[in-house]
Amino acid sequence: MPGRVSARASRTSTTGQAQPARKSSTQTLKSTRSSADNRASSSPVADVPDEGAVTSLRKHISAIFADSQKSTTGHRKLVINLRKIQEACCYEPTSSKGQQDTSFDEEDFSNELIRCVLRLLPVRKSEPSGDRVVRFLGVFLRVASDKDNALLSDRDADEGDTTTLPETPTSRLSTCLFSALLPFFTTKDKIVRFRATQIASHMINILDTLDDQLYHVLRLALLKRIHDKEASVRMHAIYGLTRLAADVDASDGENSDSDDDDDSAAGVLEKLLILLQNDPSAEVRRSLLLNLPLVPKTLPYLLERARDQDAATRRALFARLLPALGDFRHLSLTHREKLLRWGLRDRDEAVRKATAKLFRERWIEDCAKLPGAGGEEEDGNKGEKEAATPSLDALLELLERIDVTNSAANGVALEAMSEFWAGRPDYVSFVTFDEGFWAELTPESVFVVRTFNEYCRGGEGRDAREQGRLMEVLEGKMPEVTRFGFLLEREIKTLIETVKRAASGGPDGDGDEEAEEESVAREFVVEQMLAMANTFDYSDEVGRRKMFGLLRDAIAMPELPEEATKLVAEVLRLVCGDDNQGKGEREYCGVILEAIAEVHDTIMGDDEKEKSEDGDESFHSARSEVSAGSSRGRKKAQQDADGDMSMDDPMDEEKAIREIMVNMKCLHIAQCMLQNVQCDLEANVHLVTMLNNLVVPAVRSQEAPIRERGLICLGLCCLLGKNLAQENLTLFLHCFAKGHPELQSIALQIITDILTTHPSLLTPVPADPDNTTTSLIPEPSPLLKPVLKAFSKALKSESPEVQSTGATALSKLMLSQLITDTDILKQLIITFFDPETAANAQLRQALAYFLPVYCHSRYENAARVVQVSTGVIYRLGALREAFVEDEDAEPGEMVTTGFVGGLLVDWTDPRKIVSGREQGFMLGREGGEEESRVSTHLLMAEQLLERMVSGQTSKEERKVLFSMLGKLHLAEKGQAVENVKAVLELVAEVTEGKLAGDATSRNVLTKLQTVLLKLVHDAAGAERGVEESGLDVTSVMPTPARRTKGRKSDETEMDEVTQQLQRELEATKIEEEDEGEESKLTVIGEGKEDESVIDVSIDTSQLPDEKDMQSLMDSLEDEDEEL
């Protein structure tokens, strides 16, 4: 700790050591008793069988501690009173006046104070009085230590000795307190351990110095407590250890020779960092986060807590630690970007608000500080928080510090600036975009305009008045569309110039790095301006014409980067407009095709232009170029093989490269166009021309990049035409079967989009009614089998990207009921739990969301999962056995089959499945059909029992199956008697086969049998009540209930399973009714409000009552025990 002395005199002071310092006013140090007998008798403070007579000193100290637990408001006065008692016991008055009252010495004072502290140990954590006493003790030790040091500093100043720190009464009192508390660190009582650790840690953080020997003892004792099973004990042990580690770390520079101290502190710090990462208690991790020293070694571990699973810990990082860290510019760029992304996208709203507040209030203020004001002012006036006046330069620097050029792509900077404008209305009013601002646009300045424009136009959560005010502010600050068109034209020209300069190469021919950096910045500026243009209103014809001409010329520029080309295509589609006849789309497609032709001519050069002018002057397609390029490529390859190299080979190679470039550029423009149109493919002549002359040749190309991009364009064309999709679906399946992993992912995405857009492609083929030789049942679609085969292959792929893409695509198709195959569903569930997919986080995350939603959204989906549940358990059991035998496998990579069974039971819980009526409301109808359906858990019980009866199951598998049976919810009313009886028959077979080998399994069967019998009884009673109600309801009169004549009830015949089940089921039959008895039957499951609707008098006295049911249950248990 600061000022800790490495070598110090013994704790017991004698009259011959260290002459006491005298204060000139009244006090001198009293000699303390140091005899061995007295010290030995007072050492076992923890066990005090006899406290002796009550003295006045005890009364005074006890009264002070008693008052301290009531409230913290009087602690200051109580500290003064206790300090006076300490001075009276530890210091000698200079005059003989008052000596008759000083009959107690320092040891008596220490014993009485320790006695009061020990009374605090059994106080529970929930009692606030205990915390008040601990706080009072800390305040007293700090005040007493300061006063003792002040007395000794005067004496040392007089003697000229400032190298050592002699002992004081308070330091000796602290040593006695620590010695008394240490034995209680290992007691069995968790409350005593908690209070002892709390008091010791609080004292460590209060005191400035500690004895060397005591320091090491405390460090070892607290290190043991960080592994205590109680989180509260660990938390307070950490509170003390963080101070020890911080103080030694702070003294590293001053005491570089103390290697032992450095090693011990480093060991403590490493253990605390491990605890920060792995402790299961959120409170312990939060305590470490807020108390660990802020040094370069601990900073990365502290910032990791932004991904902590506890929301309060994450909020503490953004709301408390990062503001206290100081200037954010000391953090690395990676840390700034990660903190913003993690905080602004956190699932907890409080964390998002804390991050937004940190960004718009603290980080902007750090940038708004005056230059040179961060050194002494940061240390001296750290607590001052004066908001700086709004400054555009500070805002631009803030965006530069978070690298807006790169962070804007994934949306972090956009979200940060959205929160900034929402929380800083002063900046909304302050910023102005005058001519000087637009004259020199930088990535940061244009991003300010773009985010300001989006904030003012976005009306979420605002009333009409506020939205109107912001639109007025925006119109006053932004230029009109025509003026904006000229600004955009200037920036596009600048971008093209920098791209050409960067491509031309530097002095050494390896490229101009400055020009490349400048081209990246200019490209970002153009992209942000195009994003703004995509939000404008083009009702002004002058501005619309200006933007139309500009964008038409821009999209035909070969040097325009792809991202900018995509944005130009989107804005051009908005500028073209649309009407009911599709005139806007036709105009848009015509402009794009003209741009493709112009790009082709520009890249290929004058030679190709002359060749094309000799032929027809229609659309300059890439089809002939691809064919010519392919033939020339083959000829060139043949010449190379023969060794016959001609002089114009370099020219041919350059021409082949240009052909690839022109096809890639043309296909990208076509892809951007197809992503922005929705018309019918066959009705648009421009799209048909583009498909035949550009897309189809690209798909047949031998160059892999051209073929992949052509495949994407063909897929987009298939979305616009069902016939084209049906013809080319087999092509995409072939590309998936034969292609590389990247092409497989593209093919899977295209297949999924086609099936989602045209679901009728998988519709079963209706049977021909005229053909009598075939069945009238519709046959499955011929495309279904190859599609299922492709997805099955994707789930087995070795590529994680193909696996995750296949699982995501399959999830979409199954949720939309396009694929209902149970085999592929079974494979999907097994893939989710397969240990080989443990490293594929994208796959696991997609399926973790899909499987519960799939089961709970429809009854049919849950029934399919029930159908495959036993197969899943069997297959995963085999995988589990192989996994356990594998020595290289990590234990946490595969869950147990019992856990899988619990998930299957939860997914198929009938209480969580959306009903038919709820589905109707979700689909916009007034209500859906609520049809009677068998409970999914009743179906699962049947599946599990059939598996045990019919299959060869292992002991472990039966254990899992019985565990699943015990978790089923079968208390649903309205189940058909036939289904329940079928399950009862299976229960009897399992019981006769003695498949329940342990008591737990037998108990599960007994409970299951009891529940099923209750369902049979309820169903039979409800069915009988409905039948008799139908017979008697016609003769019901508003007179008192009439006595029914003797009538024999109809008995239903049931198949005999065993004699036991026969006796149990016969108890549910209704026998002849007695003539003179009368009762009323309420149909089971009806509410009380339904009873008042109609009052039907039915004699049901022969139905078993509660006593009969209880005797029936008892007989079942007795007979099960006999079996």
TrEMBL record:
Residues covered by region (Disordered): 1-51, 607-649, 1023-1123
The UniProt record lists the keyword Lipoprotein: no
Biased composition (Polar residues): 9-44
Protein's UniProt keywords contain Cell division: yes
Compositionally biased intervals (Basic and acidic residues): 607-623
Nuclear condensin complex subunit 3 C-terminal domain ranges (all copies): 665-970
One cellular component (GO) term of this entry: condensin complex
Primary location group: nucleus
Keywords: Cell cycle, Cell division, Chromosome, DNA condensation, Mitosis
UniProt-listed GO biological process terms: cell division; mitotic chromosome condensation
Subcellular location field: Chromosome
Family under the similarity heading: Belongs to the CND3 (condensin subunit 3) family.
Name this polypeptide is given: Putative condensin complex subunit 3
